[in-house]
Amino acid sequence: MLTLKSIQPQVRLLTLLFIAFFSLQTQAKTSNEFRLSEFYGGNSLLRLNGERPVQDLGIALSPLLTVSSATLHLKATSSIAMLQERSILNIRFNNVTIGQIALNPNKPNLLADVTIPSELWRPQYNTLTFAASQYVDRCQDTNAPDLWSEINLYDSHISFDTTKVINQLNLQQLSKFFHPGIGGQRNVQIFTLDDHANSIVNKLAVPTVAQALALRTQYQSLNVEQQTINSNAIGMGPTDQEVFKYRESSWYVSGESNDDIHILVGNKTSLQQTLPKESLADINGPYLKIERTPAVTVIGQEPIASQIRLIVSGLTDQDVVRAATTLAYMDDILNPDESININSASNTRLLPQQQVTLQPGRAYTLSELGVTAINFNGPGLFTKKVEIRLPADFYASETDSIKLHLDFSYGAGYEEGSTFNITVNNKVIHGLKLDIKNGNFYHDYALSIPARLFEGGKNELAFNVNQNSVQLIGECRSVNGDYLHFQLDNDSEIEIPTVAHIARQPDLKLMGQTGYPFAQYQTQNDTGIYITQEGMRSAALTMAGKLAQSSGNLIPNLYVEMGIPEALTDTAMILATPDDLSPELYGDLTTAISNSKRWPYRLQNKLYNRVTAKKNSDLQPNTATEFTNQQSTLGDFSLLLAAKNPIADKTGTLFIIAAETTELLTERIEELVQGSLWSQLGGDFFAWDDAKSPLIVMQVSSAYMLGEADSWTALGAWGTNHPWYLLLIIVAVVFMFMVLTWLLLKLRHQKIKEDWEE
Amino acid sequence: MVAKESTSTTLQSLKSSIPKLILKLFALVTLFFLIALASIPLHAATQLALSMGVIVFVYTASSEAIKHSKKRELFRLFAIIIGCLLSVRYLIWRGVNTLESDDIFSLIAMLMLFMAEIYSGIIHLLGCFVNIFPLNRPRQSIKQFKEDQIPTVDLVIPSYNESEDLLEVTIRAAMMLDYPTEKLKIHLLDDGGTDQKVFQDNPVAAQQALTRRQTLQGLCQSLGAVYHTREKNEHAKAGNINSALLNMDGELVVILDADHVPTTDFLDRTVPWMIKDQDVFLVQSPHFMDNPDPIERNYFSAFTRMPSENDMFYNTIQKGLDFWSASFFCGSAAVLRRRHLDMVGGIAGDSITEDAETALELHALGYKSVYVDKPMISGLATESFSSFIQQRERWAQGMAQILILKKPFLNAGLSWYQKCGYMSSILFWFFPFARLVFLLSPLGYLLFGLELIHATFIEILIYTVPHIIVSFRLSHVLFGKNRWPLVSELYEILQCTFLFRALLTVVKNPNDPSFLVTPKGEDQSKTYISSLANSFYWLLLMLFIGNLGAIYHFYSTPESWELTFVVFAWNAFNFILCVSLLDVLIEKKQVRKASRLPAYDQVKIVVPEQVWEGNLRNLSRTGANLSLTFKQTLPEEVRLIGYASALKKRVEIACKVMYQNSETNEVRLQFLTRTDQEKNNVIAYTLCDSERWDSFQKRRTRPISYFYGLKHVVSVSMKPLFLHIYMKLKQRS
What we know:
The structure holds two protein chains of two kinds.
Chain A: H1 8-22, E1 29-35, E2 45-49, E3 54-61, E4 65-78, E5 88-93, E6 96-102, E7 109-116, E8 124-133, E9 148-152, E10 157-164, H2 174-177, E11 187-193, H3 200-216, E12 223-229, H4 240-248, E13 261-267, H5 277-282, E14 287-293, E15 296-298, E16 301-304, E17 307-314, H6 317-329, E18 339-341, H7 352-356, E19 363-365, E20 374-377, E21 380-390, E22 394-395, E23 401-410, E24 419-424, E25 427-433, E26 440-450, E27 457-467, E28 485-488, E29 493-495, E30 500-505, H8 508-514, E31 527-531, H9 537-551, E32 558-562, E33 572-576, E34 592-593, E35 596-600, H10 601-612, E36 627-631, E37 638-644, E38 653-658, H11 662-672, H12 675-678, E39 685-688, E40 694-698, E41 704-708, H13 711-721, H14 723-757
Parallel strand pairs in A: 11-12, 11-13, 13-17, 31-32, 31-33, 33-38
Antiparallel strand pairs in A: 1-10, 2-9, 3-8, 4-7, 4-9, 4-10, 5-6, 5-8, 14-17, 14-18, 15-16, 19-29, 20-28, 21-27, 22-30, 23-26, 23-28, 23-29, 24-25, 24-27, 30-41, 34-35, 35-36, 37-38, 37-39, 39-40
Chain B: H1 2-17, H2 20-38, H3 44-66, H4 72-97, H5 104-130, E1 153-159, H6 164-175, E2 184-190, H7 195-198, H8 203-223, E3 226-228, H9 236-245, E4 252-255, E5 261-262, H10 266-276, E6 280-284, E7 288-289, H11 294-300, H12 311-323, E8 334-337, H13 338-343, H14 354-364, E9 368-371, E10 377-379, H15 385-406, H16 416-427, H17 431-448, H18 457-479, H19 487-508, E11 528-529, H20 533-556, H21 561-581, E12 586-587, E13 597-598, E14 602-607, E15 610-619, E16 623-628, E17 637-644, E18 649-660, E19 666-671, H22 676-687, H23 690-700, H24 706-716, H25 719-732
Parallel strand pairs in B: 1-2, 1-4, 2-3, 6-9, 7-10
Antiparallel strand pairs in B: 4-8, 5-10, 6-8, 11-12, 13-15, 14-15, 14-17, 15-16, 16-19, 17-18, 18-19
């Protein structure tokens, strides 16, 4: 007989479990589906060639997410020459085999669903591996051309259900909210009080906060929305107690709780109406706090949901800026508290850009670049890529060279075709045959690479080793080559020369890759993003965040200002509609966007071609250099122009982003900052109307140099950009010298003649 | 004429209005800017644009300069300056960017190659400077001066071992010089009949010396010349002249080598320059060779169609040096002022090129030289390759001695431009070092894997290739008429191994070299392989192995095929040049005693009571070839009547008919010189007319394209190699 008493412990346990389950901070369950091509840098086909090919895909996942179920939907094709009984496609997840699919020559097109056990998911980074065993014959050449299969990454996808779990809310968790992986937050709201549009908080603190958050999303875009709180709205509670409760809540946030974090920015005084007294009492200087605000329940209803917010505050506006700056620089993992008061911050030794790039004039070991010892084992082609991030304005002359001092070794048994190639930005700069049968060891193997092969920003130094084992002729005589072993020591060193710091402008590609000229290596002057409508502030903040992301660090003096003053900062960005822009701003520029537009012919034609041509090959070449003035609109597309700043004290670059309306501008900027479009930035004229690809990318302005260098290097840089002008100058000087020489020669000739005519 | 006058006036006014110093200052500042521009670091694409641009400018300007454009001087100057700028830029690039290697052997090879390039670059720049404004002097004549203004002249003919026949021709020609007889004395300075020779221990040699002395004394007596000899053979040619000078008192001294036959107008055209300016210590005229040197004879077989080797020096460089008051004494065919010679103790003798050394010393004292660009001396070039090398070794050693012992670049008496002129002339003779490096460097890479230049294929394309193109073009602009493409390279390769050794002895001991008389009039009656051929065989073998090395490189390191291709092309070029040069080393049989030069005179052939007309086809000092205007069979002996410009009258020459073709009317005659008058007539008719040399020289000075020159070299190609093998095998059997 089952009595109540007898089952009491079980009931209690169940009750506890039930309570525990529902007491979890977060319960929202989300379904996600992603194409595999989103996790692969190459094209949408993953080719598996050879006998035992292996390919990895990295899948990043927000650490706040737990995966409850996941399925891989795979679409692949394999060679019809495969031996069915031995050819298998193994699928591994975090190195655990989760599926084995026979490569059937009779069914070369395969579709498969593979379940990924939820316990295999790791927080942050996961690896999906495709490892094939491909056989066409019992004894086969490992490089036989019919040993292939390919996975259609675009049509293959991974779907999974996730739940966001926030166990303990403190500042340590902040990065997890904005993790670049799946489930990371991609939109953020920043709230400020009804302050003056160009107050320090609005102008400087909020852009700094936007940058700080964007830096946490790393390469993923972050759309920032700034809203102003009307502090008078606090008076809506009927009783003091309700007002108090109301003040504790995130009453200014509309909508339901979604476990996204929002940011509240303001000084202590301005936040009085939005924070409870206890919280205000904690603010003694620059102040950061993360908290979950309670929900407000009124007559059984919940008009205000519980929210997670980050408070960026301080006693004064300057304190708020300092707090925002700290938010950008601080390492979240070192802040286990909910709130911190910042006493002081010292960051004067190196400018932000000097902290994130290799410094010219210094040598770095590979371990300092974060590279562990490189080991390649077994036969095949192995590559280790090392990112060399140089200052954006890294300007190497012909004479400069970057030196590599490598310590590496390889074991015995390397056969014909074994090579060690080193590439810089996909250009082979050195090759070595690994042809000593007994192996070899190299210490301080010195290479001198022309520094001009490196560009400002990110560069890729790759070590490619092809390891071949002995090839035995005869039936089933093969050696697997597992004994092949190559090692590149991470004590190997790269030496960066001292170079000039100048860059060719205007260059949207450089801006896209490095944030230059907003972020500069040698100086950090004020740079402004000017908006012509208050509604553009969010778009400006999104841009500020993207620029910081591109530069890899905070751009400290980047501010957002309402209106276009008479003098702009040297480097500046204007967000505007054509109606807001005066023609005077454009001076001699080839392109102008105001009420009337000035388009270069070729641009216009290109644009026309782009719209009318069905495919790229239909595009007609354009040679016209004239321009037209016309009355027209921008329609749905937006334009990003870059040109020499016509209204700056010193040489600088002016960026103008224009769209027909404020809303359209905000929408286009949200598209622009997405990786797919941002990575295609180029030239100085960039038009787009979606996030996939630009309508047109052109270089229409004449080039100029920006930065500081000795006059010699600057002259060389100028000459490099203006070869024909340089030639003309040379011809002119030669001409002048010729005339002077001719006169002197004639005078001498005259004198000689006088001698014999006397 | 009016334009010339206006230019002259403009210059005159310019001279008075703008101080020359300011012009020089501006020129210097501009030059500084040019060099600065040449050293701007540029990226590859810009350098390519720049190089292409400069090439276009150089070709356009030089094409205008070569044409008879009104502004050709300006175009020429522009092409030279902008072309040199590119070369300077190349050398700066080479020095700054391409000398880097971790391998010590590669670094040594690199530096050697760079030094060779620097040397070539300096020679090129100095060459451009020297020849930037070749001076053309007007015709002068002593007829414009009163008799008392005309100075007395001692014409000296130094001799060592030359034959009596050879000397007789020279003395007879000298006796016919158009100059007041009482003011001209001819002296034969015999160093082959000195007391030292006559009384030497070897009785046979002593007897030969005595016989020579007596024979030459008799010759001089019969011709009216003064015979000189001396006690000892000290200080070679310079000592011989200085010894004789003690017994002369003429105001001017003319020096003629034993084989240098003067034309009658020699003194008429040269002495006026001495009268006009008392500060002129030297009037030099060109040496015209009326026979081909062994290279011209054996290799080109184009003596009458191609500019001779020394045409470049005498037709261009000496004129260029003359503009800078740095034309120098070439040992013969020159007039020197006795007063000035005495100031420096006579002909200098510290080096074995006493001529250039003497000129250097007198230039340093502030005296002037004049170069008269008119061939008025016809001499004999060396006949065999070995004597050719012997002659060049002496020149190279002598110039190296001057550099080491006299240090012209430090000589305070010389102006900066004179220093440049002398350094250009002297440094040229160090070409064996550069040429050997250029020949052997490719082997460093092909056989030993040495890195020669730390640069990419693209960089070589955008720096080296334009520099080579522009340098060739400028050489064409400066010397195109007088030096065909690749000829310099061929001459340099032929001489480099021998001259390199000779130069090393000078560097080791500057006082070591001794004067060796260049053999002339050698016997070339049979075809044989030169005794100097062995070193070329070794060189060829190395270059051939180098080519095999290139094939191995292509196979073993396909990734560096671009670099291998460049070096292989370089080595293959050297190989082709060397193979074709084997032709020179086959000393070809020479049938005629004297080479025949083209002639176009109308002549009459006279036999008793009959006269026929004919046209000369060619002429030598021993005979003529002509075509008769009528079909006629001639008797065995005839008389040829022609107009001798030298004597300004018709002369009759007795001739023996050697051959006649009744179909073509061609007749070959041998001159008979049985009497003094006949000898004089033959010499006057064949050797004493400067217009004849002038027209012959003008006939062969013409430019050809680079590809034509290359085609010629390639066309010679492998044939000589097989010929050598055949002759060597034949020799053994």
